[in-house]
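Translate structure to sequence.
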């Protein structure tokens, strides 16, 4: 954009001034959280822009994400870009200790992780001075004004990938049109999750030719890792018992899941539920709920085995969800019985599981749509509907096989979509090799 849209607005200047004032308070809060999570003092200082690793030689492509879901969603993209650009190195920044731990376990080649700088002058400048990225990709709704503006001022080409804006966020930016145009003008490319976000960005001031409607990047992520040793051990403990999974559950959802399980136990007395709370630190609350439901349980974090009497296995560990999905083809995906937004259905689908969801999956509406239409996913309203769907798939193997085939078909269509994302990203951010096919013509 040109003219006045290139000039910092009064609101942006006020933001910079305010964040400079509250920066020390924000740092103390952030440091306390990182310290509580066991992050080392050296790595805590990454939030102040002090690096804990050297910058690699050559081109460096930087991805900035918020937390777990956003971070993991770009790993398959980095893997594919790494194949296409063998001379490139990669940096991924995310703000939570949980995301850092999971990224470390699945780190692609030539990639390193750092915590992002606080969005104040000193930390942002130190970060950019050290890393000097050749391109920056912000994921979803990670709009940090100072980081974006400082990057663009250094002529770092920027993209907003997998863009998603809530109605509330859109309304807020529309009340600040000059600042919205100023910030959006710093991006060369917007790859949105859906047509609605694309239209909103254009209405907010983004140039139409820079906006590309796409699909949810999380639907294109690599399959979750499976620990074959753990998988074999748990399979022996389960033996021939029927199993179903309730994954990524939130407060207020476990009650419905346990009610459905008690109903199902009347028909399948040896049925096992693998319960995977979204946040493992909630284990005490989940244990209390299961105990109060008069159900026998085992706790993964306590290394308790599944025995004949175990009715619920509480899988309260990080990084093992892929292993649990490999155990069982029936998965209820939480964050959906409450108005939370849902979670990525392609993670269980990639394990060839049939998926059940509540109605509150609005953050993944475009992802669920083809799955539900094909029969690979089923929407339920409550514990009764949940029990009925699980019962149908437990009793009708042909129906379960058809649902699993449908999920696999939907997963297969994502390969082409990911290739399209990479092609557009390379074109718009000048991520080309001399021998790259898109460089010619």
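Result:
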């Amino acid at each position: 954009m040109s003219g006045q849209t290139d000039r910092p607005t009064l609101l942006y200047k006020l933001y910079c001034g305010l964040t400079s004032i509250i920066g020390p308070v924000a740092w103390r809060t952030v440091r306390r959280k990182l310290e509580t999570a066991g992050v080392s003092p050296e790595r805590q200082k990454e939030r102040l822009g002090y690096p804990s690793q050297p910058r690699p030689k050559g081109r460096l492509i930087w991805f900035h994400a918020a937390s777990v879901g956003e971070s993991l969603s770009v790993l398959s993209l980095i893997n594919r870009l790494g194949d296409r650009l063998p001379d490139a190195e990669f940096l991924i920044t995310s703000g939570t200790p949980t995301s850092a731990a999971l990224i470390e376990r699945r780190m692609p080649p030539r990639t390193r992780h750092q915590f992002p700088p606080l969005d104040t002058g000193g930390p942002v400048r130190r970060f950019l001075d050290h890393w000097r990225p050749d391109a920056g990709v912000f994921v979803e709704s990670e709009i940090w004004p100072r980081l974006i503006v400082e990057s663009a001022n250094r002529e770092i080409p920027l993209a907003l990938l997998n863009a998603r804006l809530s109605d509330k966020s859109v309304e807020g930016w529309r009340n600040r049109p000059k600042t919205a145009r100023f910030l959006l003008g710093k991006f060369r490319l917007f790859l949105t999750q859906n047509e609605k976000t694309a239209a909103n960005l254009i209405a907010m001031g983004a140039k139409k030719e820079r906006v590309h409607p796409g699909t949810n990047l999380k639907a294109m992520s690599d399959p979750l890792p499976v620990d074959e040793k753990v998988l074999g051990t748990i399979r022996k403990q389960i033996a021939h018992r029927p199993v179903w999974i309730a994954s990524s559950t939130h407060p207020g959802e476990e009650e419905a899941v346990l009610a459905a399980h008690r109903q199902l136990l009347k028909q399948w007395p040896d049925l096992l539920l693998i319960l995977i709370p979204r946040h493992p630190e909630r284990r005490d609350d989940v244990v209390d709920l299961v105990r109060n439901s008069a159900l026998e349980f085992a706790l993964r974090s306590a290394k308790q085995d599944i025995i004949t009497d175990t009715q619920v296995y509480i899988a309260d560990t990080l990084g093992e969800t892929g292993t649990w999905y490999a155990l069982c083809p029936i998965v209820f995906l939480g964050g959906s019985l409450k108005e939370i937004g849902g979670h990525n259905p392609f993670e269980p689908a990639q394990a060839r599981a049939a998926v059940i969801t509540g109605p509150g999956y609005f953050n993944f509406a475009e992802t669920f749509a083809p799955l539900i239409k094909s029969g690979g996913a089923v929407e339920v309203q409550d514990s009764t509907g949940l029990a009925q769907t699980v019962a149908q798939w437990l009793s009708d193997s042909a129906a379960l096989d058809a649902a699993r085939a449908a999920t696999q078909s939907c997963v297969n269509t994502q390969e082409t979509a990911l290739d399209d994302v990479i092609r557009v990203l390379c074109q718009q951010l000048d991520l080309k090799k001399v021998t790259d096919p898109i460089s010619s013509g």
